[in-house]
Amino acid sequence: MNIPFFNITSLSLLLLLLSSSLLVLHLGRNNINNQMPHLLSSPSNLKVAILGAAGGIGQSLSLLLKTQLHYLIQANSPTNIHLSLYDINKEVIDGLYADLSHIDTPISLSAHAANDGKGGIHAALVDSDIIVIPAGMPRKPGMTRDDLFNINAKIISQLTDSIAESCDLSKVFILLISNPVNSLVPVVCNRLISHHKIDKGIEKRLLGITNLDLVRASTFLNELSPSNNGRMPYVPVIGGHSGDTIVPVFSSQSQLISTMDEPQLKHLISRVQYGGDEIVKAKNGKGSATLSMAHAACKIVTNFTNLLLGNVNSFESINYIPLLDHQNQPICKGSNELMSMIDNLQFFAIPATVTSSGVNEINYDILNHLNSYEKNELIPICLMKLKKNINSGLEFNVEEV
Ligand SMILES: *[C@@H]1O[C@H](CO)[C@@H](O)[C@H](O)[C@H]1NC(C)=O
After folding, report:
1. Quick one: fold of 202-401?
2. N or C: which end of the chain has fewer CB within 10 A?
3. Could you give the CA distance from residue 246 to residue 239 in angstroms, rounded to a whole number?
4. Domain spans of the chain, in order of start
């Protein structure tokens, strides 16, 4: 009985030593390289924080980022990438940290838990450039994403408060994965603006990740109609991130769908809209999408990392974004035009150009090229349901938390 106890103690000692030496390493580096790359919050250090890193998505995403992000650093660049892992579950986060820290990539790590005596969430967040949030309850069978709303809105509101306290809101990007994305992005936006009275342009840097819908649309289309060039087809998916609010734009791949009849196409659309349910059912009460979600999020984080490392000046991506700023003005070029086409909804998943200052231009033209089924059947249902989801988000009582 003594032996396992001893092992655990020495493991945590090792962890403590490891984390403190990492800290020293960091401080050292920051002092040496006092040339400031203007895009980053801290000199030569790109910090990605994952809030909810101990969960199913969080663990898989942490692994993908730890094994892949360093490929984006240019040769001879002094830049370090740091992954900051936060969760309320201290045991799991310490285990995750120990495990990931044996992986031979030059990405530094730190693990943080609430009340961990080392600064908790503040230490996890401070100087972050990108915050990814998979925190919250996963979906159980029979639950819709919207049933999760009340539980996750509280969790996300508390995390938003911590972000407002610890981060430079004129720089940081917040990427939200937690469901229901349709309502939680409005919760975060509203909380930052009306509760914290923040006007640092953070609305342009708050994005709900809907990329799993694009990943599914591409995969399912390719199963039915493989493209002959060996590449996966690109299928834009717009609207929201739950059931009927998800609008896959298969008409953009007219070649590949030309051989399908109407029932086949409708089935394909519905598979994308309800793809999450296939996983919830198959996991039989033990979870929802984790690996595929982490993969989809990793692609988005990769784009943001390239942007903040200065490898690109901008990229185009579909995410669920606010269309109005804190003064109810259009967030950027194209938002007025988009809003006039979507019943004045204030949030929508749409292709947009992103620069280091945030969403810069909304590329709404896709709405002008929908086929009649997408335009007259899918979009109206999407708008009707999305409006309700957005309103529940905006009406969420901040004082309840
Ligand atoms: C990442 O950026 C590239 C370049 O703009 C774009 O083609 C790609 O779709 C983006 N990926 C995601 C997942 O948004």
Report:
1. L-2-Hydroxyisocaproate Dehydrogenase; Chain A, domain 2 (3.90.110)
2. N
3. 6
4. 2-201, 202-401
What is the residue with the minimal CA distance to atom 8 of ligand 1?
317
Extract the tokens encoding 98: 């120990």
Residue 255 identity (one-letter amino acid): Q
Q: Whose CA is nearest to atom 10 of ligand 1?
A: 317
Tokens of 130: 């990108």
Average pLDDT over residues 329-355: 97
Residue 184: closest CA among 209, 204, 202, 165 = 209
Task: In whole angstroms, give the CA distance from residue 362 to residue 45.
Answer: 30
- Of the candidates 232, 203, 172, the one whose C-alpha atom is nearest the C-alpha of residue 41 is 172
Question: Can you tell me the mean pLDDT for 301-322?
Answer: 97
Residue range 39-50: average pLDDT? 87
Q: Given ligand 1 and candidates 215, 303, 366, which is best to mutate, with the most ligand atoms within 8 Å of its CB?
A: 303
What's the token pair of residue 305? Answer: 């990392």
Catalytic one of 241, 267, 326, 369: 241
Distances (CA, A) of 26 to 43, 162, 368: 10, 23, 50
Return mean pLDDT, the chain: 89
Q: How confident is the model at residue 145 (pLDDT cuts 50, 70, 90)?
A: low
CB distance 315 to ligand 1 below 6 Å = yes
DSSP 376: I
Nearest alpha carbon to residue 395 among 152, 147, 143, 153: 153
Evaluate if residue 379 carries a pLDDT over 70: yes
Say whether pLDDT at 347 is over 90.
yes
Predicted local distance difference test score (pLDDT) of residue 275 = 94
Closest by Cα among 361, 281, 357, 273 to 317: 361
Q: Is residue 241 among the annotated active site residues? A: yes
At residue 253 the predicted structure's pLDDT band, cuts being 50, 70 and 90, is very high
pLDDT tier, 146 (very low <50, low <70, confident <90, very high otherwise): low
| The residue type at 308 | L
